[in-house]
TrEMBL record:
Keywords for this protein: Coiled coil, Membrane, Transmembrane, Transmembrane helix
Family matches, as InterPro entries: Beta-barrel_YknX, BSH_YknX-like, UPF0194_transport
Protein name: Membrane fusion protein biotin-lipoyl like domain-containing protein
Coiled-coil parts of chain: 138-181
Superkingdom of the organism of origin: Bacteria
Residue span(s) of domain YknX-like beta-barrel: 253-332
TM stretches of this protein: 12-30
Domain spans labelled YknX-like barrel-sandwich hybrid: 71-247
A matching Pfam family: BSH_YknX
Length: 411
């Protein structure tokens, strides 16, 4: 019995010893492969580290990048089949622009109304031409009558006067008929104009009814997606899936929520530093443009940390930059105590050398070697500057001592 107990303790001892040896070996391997600037003869710091030391936020919130406006359009099967898609992916759309239409009987009715109106326009033009000719004929006869009367009055031959009087009488009967025909032509014009007005109104009504079969854009933006196959699929698919999406990215925003305890720290027009959650070295500037005074209705969802704490939606407008985030990017919103520090890159002055006005040189660590880089900066205080060109948050800088030269290995 004692022998069994002795072997048991021996096994436990040996197992513990193996664990300790493996752990120590792993620790030595980790230390050997991890960059350790503390053992380096050079002073190395990242731009991000220096910036954070000077711009510590007094509040950090999470948010998501959204577009100024987004339209997700579905097919309404009750209106019929999609007939004509009037836009393509990548097209820039104006407010009210036609996107696509449905094939319905209303299109035939509208065409018939347009044809009837156009036919009546042709009839009206014909009536005007006919009336013009009739008045022209009447005026010509009237001129002939005046000439015959003048000739008769100037004649001294009784036989000639008698013959002219007979001719005048016949012409007067003819003129009366011509006048009646001209008036009838005018009446035809009036009738055609009235009928055309009615048909024009009818066409307008049919066009308005047709507009219900044409889908238009509710705002400006760019067509980012069209599901060309969806019109051929089942009614259930059409109800579930998006047919067309239009996104207005002329302005980008970040939306999120702030709890009731930090609500007062989020002020309108407050400058904010926005940090990419996947790559913290990527940052943008923005300002608060909206903060709700009433709590969000979604505070009682299961995923909320504390359903008993009221949360207020906020909205931040991003400033324009060379590389804007994509829609859906998740970010941290840093509310700084000093608005002027939002989005800036801060470097300690001791890392600068060859200072000439607003330019200076720094040593960057590139692929494990020192590389000289000329930067531009603005004065911040006695110990630091704001870098405005040729710098990134992820850059590692070396203190410019006499040992640092171009190409020197930096560990």
């Amino acid at each position: 019995m004692k022998r069994i107990k002795k072997n048991k303790w021996k096994t436990i001892f040996m197992s513990t010893l193996v664990v300790l040896i493996v752990s120590y070996g792993g620790y030595r391997y980790y230390k050997g492969n991890k960059p350790d600037s503390s053992n380096s003869p050079f002073e190395i710091r990242t731009v991000e580290e220096m910036t954070e030391s000077y711009t510590k936020p007094n509040l950090t919130l999470s948010g998501e990048v959204i577009a100024k406006n987004s339209q997700k359009i579905k097919i309404d099967s009750t209106k019929g089949q999609v007939k004509d898609i009037k836009v393509r992916e990548g097209d820039t759309i104006k407010n009210g622009q036609e996107l696509f239409s449905y094939a319905t009987e209303q299109q035939l009715k509208t065409k018939e109304a347009t044809y009837s109106k156009e036919e009546k326009e042709r009839q009206l033009q014909a009536a005007r031409t006919t009336a013009s000719l009739k008045w022209e004929s009447y005026n010509k006869k009237a001129t002939e009558l005046e000439e015959l009367k003048t000739k008769r009055n100037n004649s001294t031959d009784e036989e000639e006067k008698k013959a002219l009087s007979q001719e005048i009488k016949t012409l007067e009967n003819d003129i009366e008929m011509k006048y009646s025909e001209a008036l009838s032509g005018d009446n035809d014009i009036v009738t055609a104009e009235a009928e055309l007005k009615k048909l024009t109104e009818f066409e307008k009504v049919e066009q308005e009814r047709l507009s219900y079969d044409v889908v238009t854009s509710d705002g400006e933006g760019k067509v980012t997606y069209i599901n060309q196959e969806l019109p051929k699929l089942s009614q259930e698919k059409k109800q579930e899936e998006t047919f067309m999406e239009i996104v207005d990215q002329t302005e980008l925003y970040v939306t999120g929520k702030v709890n009731e305890f930090d609500r007062e720290k989020v002020e309108l027009n407050k400058q904010v530093e926005l940090v990419d959650r996947k790559n913290p070295s990527i940052r943008w500037k923005g300002k608060v443009v909206q903060i709700a005074n009433l709590g969000s209705d979604g505070d009682n969802k299961k995923q909320e940390d504390n359903p008993n704490v009221t949360k207020y939606p906020y909205k931040i407008l991003l400033e324009k930059s060379d590389k804007m985030p994509i829609i859906g990017t998740h970010v941290y919103a840093n509310f700084l105590s000093n608005d002027e520090d939002a989005g800036k890159m801060i470097v300690e002055k001791k890392f600068l050398f060859d200072i000439k006005g607003k330019t200076a040189s720094v040593w960057k660590v590139t692929h494990g070697k020192a590389t000289k880089e000329v930067i531009e900066f603005k004065e911040k205080n006695n110990d630091a500057v704001e870098v405005t060109k040729n710098m990134a948050m992820a850059d590692r800088l070396v203190n410019p001592t006499s040992e640092v030269k171009e190409g020197v290995e930096i560990k």
